[in-house]
Design a protein that fits this description.
Blueprint lengths: L2 E7 L13 E3 L21 E2 L2 E2 H8 L5 E4 L23 E3 L5 E3 L5 H11 L2 E6 L6 H12 L5 H8 L10 E4 L12 H13 L10 E8 L3 H9 L19 E8 L15 H28 L6 E9 L18 H16 L4 E7 L9 E3 L6 E3 L1 H8 L7 E3 L1 E4 L3 E4 L2 E4 L1 E8 L2 E8 L6 E8 L3 E9 L19 E2 L3 E4 L2 E6 L3 E9 L1
Parallel strand pairs: 1-22, 2-5, 2-13, 5-8, 8-9, 9-10, 10-11, 11-12, 12-13
Antiparallel strand pairs: 1-17, 3-4, 6-7, 14-15, 16-20, 18-19, 20-21, 21-27, 22-26, 23-24, 23-27, 25-26
Helix pairs in contact: 3-4, 6-7, 7-8, 8-9
Bound molecules: alpha-L-arabinofuranose.
Alpha-L-arabinofuranose binds next to loops.
């Protein structure tokens, strides 16, 4: 078998990988909030104030750093005052984007902040630019974070919460080029500056404002938003710009078909396996190209790129509501995730946050819950996030790959090994994905610069590329110790099974 070499200088730490690239997203969409996170106070399933306990416990295993809410497209229809006060007095609305169902606003600001506290996650609140007012956005951040007896702080107290919350992240609009208002970028850039100005820092709460950014390869959108900052060419150690916003977003979804027929989550050919992984690898290209545009205006990299929607988007499971975006999650989804996360690690100098869509029961979820029995299943993607915990807030390490096999996909060469690495104190973690559907691959880890005094490896693979977890077989795809790691004159040698994701953790001397 041919061998791939991965050269890693353990003593040359690069930019820090923010734990926030392991962020999640929860929209009022299908069974993500209702039936996923929130079951209500009368539910039989164990809950805390209506929030499902087993969901919280499972997600705590991932150390979720931040949670984005309430959308998505829903955010630009959402009026936060509808979701406060006694539940039986809250007005109803139509969720016109997702299933055209009636939303009763039972899950609102207090419930979301309660959920964040239970998860130990920081709040990323997405504000409404598309159909909301500047005053509404301004009052929401005041309601959430103000300590004194201001009108909004008093209203919050009247609704049962004395202490202000911390809200470190605030989204200014979502997909403004589409569901968030169908705006032209020049128009949105002005609105983003205006709205952001009124998302004020209250009571020591410092907000990182994120303006709705581009879709896929729309570099013009990024360019105009960057121009809207004005000069940003100060010294590298200057403080982040105080106004109008600190980050811009990027959305990119992986699917193999068209928007009308995206492909099946579980019934795919070998060609579609490779096509999905090629589409996932495209994230590397997108980060490079959007990063180059940002570098032209912001060479010191003070403006963050926030990939606040990413992941697979397949056809819904047969028999489910097309507007609810409920899909299965296979080993293929897990490898789509590991390939994206490698790209985020490699671009740690620009990518400050990312949010996979969407945590429970929607798109590339971490958890699926059975609507009839209530059974909870951890998906293969969940396990990648769990295996990657050592990368949170670790310093990135460059991985120089040699002799990587490739496969031609749609006229392009797809490298069949993806890798990234990080170091934190005396521990390092190497991520290795074998994209080859059929063949195992041996990788020599050429480890330089520090002594390696111990190692352990974990593998995520399964009998078939389409294997997935169900209530009857919840561990069809589950991590296991990998014993194919051997000493090598250059460091270590590890055999990656076909279609697998492996982490090797190193103890450094
Ligand atoms: O994640 C589902 C939807 O995808 C979001 O609501 C929207 O922002 C994007 O188009």
């Amino acid at each position: 078998m041919d061998t791939t070499t991965a050269v890693i200088d353990l003593d040359l730490p690069g930019p820090r990988i923010s734990r926030h690239v392991y962020g999640h997203f929860a929209e009022h969409l299908g069974r993500c909030i209702y039936g996923g996170f929130y079951v209500g106070e009368d539910a039989d399933v164990p809950h805390v104030r209506g929030i499902r306990l087993d969901v919280v416990e499972a997600l705590r295993e991932l150390a979720i750093p931040n949670l984005r809410w309430p959308g998505g497209c829903f955010a630009d229809d959402y009026h936060w005052r509808d979701g406060i006060g006694p539940r039986d007095e809250r007005p109803r609305m139509v969720n016109s984007h997702w299933g055209d169902v009636v939303e009763d606003n039972a899950f609102g600001t207090h419930e979301f902040m309660d959920l964040c506290e239970l998860l130990g996650a920081e709040a990323y609140v997405a504000g409404n630019v598309g159909s909301g007012t500047v005053a509404e956005m301004s009052e929401w951040i005041e309601y959430l974070t103000r300590a004194d007896d201001s009108p909004m702080a008093a209203l919050r107290r009247a609704n049962g919460r004395d202490e202000p919350w911390k809200v470190p992240f605030f989204g200014v609009g979502n997909e403004a080029w589409g569901c968030g208002g169908n705006l032209r970028v020049e128009q949105f850039a002005s609105l983003a500056r205006q709205y952001s100005t009124y998302v004020r820092d209250h009571a020591g709460n410092e907000v990182y404002r994120i303006a709705a950014g581009a879709s896929d390869g729309d570099l013009h959108w990024t360019e105009v938003l960057m121009q809207s900052f004005g000069p940003l060419d100060g010294p590298a150690d200057a403080a982040a710009p105080a106004a109008p916003f600190q980050g811009i977003s990027l959305h990119y979804y992986t699917f193999t078909g068209t928007w009308q027929d995206k492909g099946s989550a579980t019934g795919f050919t070998e060609d579609e396996w490779y096509l999905a992984l090629q589409k996932a690898s495209f994230m590397e290209h997108l980060l490079t190209r959007h990063g180059q545009v940002m570098d032209r205006y912001d060479p010191a990299r003070r403006v963050g790129l926030v990939v606040d929607e990413w992941g697979t988007w397949w056809n819904v499971e047969p028999g489910t509501n097309p507007g609810f975006l409920y899909q299965q999650n296979t080993l293929r989804d897990a490898l789509v995730a590991s390939v994206h996360l490698d790209a985020f690690h490699r671009h740690a100098d620009r990518v400050v946050m990312a949010n996979i869509a969407q945590t429970v029961n929607v798109l590339q979820a971490m958890l699926l819950t059975d609507p009839d029995t209530g059974a909870l299943v951890r998906t293969p993607s969940f396990h990648v996030f769990a295996m990657n915990r050592p990368h949170h807030d670790a310093d990135s390490l460059a991985v120089h790959l040699r002799d990587v096999p490739e496969r031609e996909v749609d006229g392009d060469a797809l490298p069949l090994v993806s890798a990234s690495a990080s170091v934190k104190g005396d521990a390092a973690c190497v991520s290795l994905t074998n994209l080859d559907a059929d063949a195992a691959r041996t990788v020599v880890l050429d480890l330089r610069g520090r002594d390696v005094v111990g190692h352990a490896a974990t593998v995520l693979t399964a009998a078939a590329t389409s294997s997935h977890n169900t209530p009857d077989d919840p561990a069809a795809v589950a991590p296991a110790p990998l014993d194919s790691v051997r000493a090598h004159e250059r460091g270590l040698e590890v055999t990656l099974p076909a279609h697998s994701y492996v982490t090797v953790t190193l103890t450094l001397g």
